Amino acid sequence: MNADITKLKQIINSSDNIVFFGGAGVSTESGIPDFRSADGLYSKSYAYPPETILSYSFFKSHTEEFYRFYREKMLYPGAKPNNAHKALAALEKQGKLKAVITQNVDGLHEEAGSKNIIELHGSALRNLCMKCKDCYPVEIILKSKKVPLCKCGGVIKPDVVLYEEGLDPAVMSKATKAIYEAEVLIVGGTSLNVYPAAGMINYYRGGNLILINKSETSYDKCADLIIRESIGQTLSEAIKGEET
Prior knowledge:
By secondary structure, this protein is α/β, with parallel strands linked by helices. The protein has helices at residues 3-13, 50-53, 56-61, 63-73, 83-93, 108-112, 139-143, 169-181, 231-240; strands at residues 18-22, 97-102, 117-119, 122-129, 135-136, 156-160, 184-188, 208-212, 225-227. The chain has 9 helices and 9 strands. It starts with a helix and ends with a helix. The mean pLDDT is 92.
């Protein structure tokens, strides 16, 4: 265990009010590519940029094309929780971790056993009829060949925040409250470039801001500890002392 992870372990051991704020990098070790890395989704070539395809206006005007991209590039039904997800669930079970705030929509924190999850961008596992509001599991999206329709005839939309859509104010309020009250804030697997989510870090008032990310972030100068190692290995060693 290197010195930085040892220090993180000491910080965790001495606190029972920890909040984790995570991004796409938390799930890359589960085989889900992030958007902005060299081999991520944004590095590929499509007829439209991913930001355009994943916008609400594109969903409304090119629904079938949206779903072709969404099924192929945004859903990973075979993905399983990795060491990071499992370690965080274990830390919550110990009573130390008060919340997991995630920008991801893959549902892996829940599958790993975490209970207090704040999903800033919603969940791909939930899908709502835009007409009657009935809820459907992700299988209806995976099995559909074109646009998935509700039994009432309405179009089913993933319960995720698309570009041009705002974050749920109640979810934002819950997240900022958790960050504001945290004694330790661990930020992992995120470039902190996506707003307004990234701006929530500014609500932190504690003295232990830990960044676990392989690349630099705009908040590095504010951090009390920066770790450039694998987030799964780092959290596993710091929280359990061994890989899960």
